[in-house]
Structures are given as C-alpha cells and as structure tokens.
Design a protein that fits this description.
36% of the residues lie in helices and 26% in strands. It is α/β, with parallel strands linked by helices and 190 residues long. The chain has a seven-stranded mixed sheet, with helices on both faces. The longest helix is centred in the N-terminal third of the chain and has 15 residues.
Length: 190
Amino acid sequence: MTSMNRYHQWLCNSRMWARAVEKDLLPWALEDVQLGSDTLEIGPGYGATTRVLARRTGGRLSVLEVDGGAAERLRAEYGDRVDVVHGDGCAMPLPDGRFDAVLCFTMLHHVPSPRQQDQLFAEAFRVLRPGGVFAGCDGRAGRGFRLIHLWDTYVPVPPRTLPDRLRAAGFSTPDISLRNDNFRFRAVRP
C-alpha cells in the first residue's frame, strides 16, 4: 500500500479497525441499501470491509484492488469465495452493466486527484446495471483525519460537492448524509 504511511497501514490492518468496520461503519454506510445478487467493492485494501461484505451479500462478491500485493493477499484469504480483480477504479477491467451494487468505503480520499475521483464515479456508473446503486462512505477533512494521513496520498472529497459530481457521472437521486467525521453516499443508475 504505497499511498499510505506506516501508521495508517497498521491502523487499517488492525483488529480495532476491523471491529469498528463491522459494528459501526458498514451498518451505517449500508443502512437500507439493497446489494442484489452481484456486488462490487472498489478499493478493499486490507479487507476489513470485504470480511463483512462476504458474510452480508447473498450473492456474488467481487473486489477491485489497485495494489497488486493487497490483491494477492485477498486472493489467498478468500480463494474462490470472492472474485479478486487487480485493477484501477478509474479504468475498471470489468464489463458494462454487470453489477447490482458498487461500493467503496474510506478509500476515495486515496484517489490522487478530483479528476480521477470523477473517473472512478463514471466507471462505477458504467459497470452498474440500470437501477443499481453506488454507495459507500469516506472521512471528512477534520484535524484527526488529516493527521492520520500525513505523507499519504490524501485528496479528501468535500461532501457538499458530491451530489453534483455524481450527477455529472450520470447518477440520479444522490443522497449524502453526514455523521461526526464521516459522510455516506448513495446514488442510483437510472
């Protein structure tokens, strides 16, 4: 994970983070979101979110990871239970209209530029079926969040800009909710 400092790597691979993801972050981020039979997670990193999704999804789960080493670790952990694809969220090596849900959790701020974030949104739109949902969450640019990300690739997404950016990618009905230092989003492909 070259886009993260050593402390951040340790934190994202810790049991403490895994518990927070399972007990708090994902239940809030996915409240009232229907995943459908074919779900894609973008940017699973060390896999804390994937562990929860693998139990939660009733159908097929695929993950797209840009870091080759992380993708190999995920393949070793999940075998054929999760389809692990090594690739870039800004140019997904996946077919149009395949997924019922596309998800990403606490990774958008590691996408190197707003332009590339917008490409990721367009790619999420492209690989969703009509009626499919794009959902997830990320951190807000507070002091603590910035400190964890010293020397990281760190391009926070201002939540107030997200509805227009998601509409520009083709999504309808974007919904953004704020909570403490986080925001969640949902948008639908018409």
